[in-house]
Amino acid sequence: NRRIQANKVVFDNLNFVLDSMSLKIRDGGFFYCDPLGTLPYPVYTIGNDCISGSTLYFRIDDDGDGTKDDAKIYQKSTATDNGIIHGTISFSDGLTAFTPITLPTIDVTDLIFYVTGTNGSNPIPVPMITILIRGKNTDPKNPTDFQLQTTISN
Asked: Does this model's pTM top 0.70?
């Protein structure tokens, strides 16, 4: 029962994180991903396909002015909680520091973005973003590995 409850908390949080990421990404544009996660926030006006990035940059219309000029960034980061270092999915609007959006009981070992359809000969790009998340529940009594994947298009 304890293992089921611990896993339910982890998967509820991961479901919430993926849902909120998907909603923002679905409304986004100008997707750009960085395979190393080391770029500073880029200034860009076109999207860029990538086959394996650990950081996803994109823009949405957050302020309702009709232009996708408000930055959003997701990346895998590390955080320390109670002296324990763990991987996390973090979010930033490009102006503020990254904030972890996964629970401290989740250790994200991989966050990989695959982006296609952002450019090329199609006059109207139809980007597809696939997100792969691997990790584990860090509960010492009930550790559980997980792998989740979702694909979003807009």
From this structure: yes
CA dihedral over 63, 71, 30, 17, signed as positive or negative: negative
Angle at CA of residue 137, ends 80 and 55, nearest 5°? 60
117 closest CA partner among 31, 43, 57, 37: 31
Q: What are phi and psi of 127, to 5 degrees?
A: -70, 145
* Calpha distance 6→17 (Å, rounded): 17
> pLDDT digit string (tens) for 68-78?
767 788 888 88
Output DSSP code: residue 13.
Answer: H
Neighbours of 105 (CB within 10 A): 16
Give the Cα-Cα-Cα angle 132, 52, 103 (nearest 5 degrees). 35
